[in-house]
Amino acid sequence: MLKILDFYADWCGPCKILEPILERIEKETKIEMERIDVDKNQERASKYGVFSIPTLVFEKDGQEVDRLVGLAPKHKIFEIIQKHQS
Fold it and tell me: What is the pTM for the complete model shown?
């Protein structure tokens, strides 16, 4: 099963723009999303090698299969989802 980890911060402008896009994708695809505040979860962000936000980590069966760094349009996120949904 595909899961998206959304590494963000409340003060991050691009993260705020991305949030409603991810909410729509979650409703449309039923893909599990996990939002991770990098200020409150620095160890987890470090574990995943997150140096810039927003960062989306795509996991399948617990393994990272793709990553998007920075603000991305909805269609780009869908491309990655479709690539790994099988």
Answer: 0.94
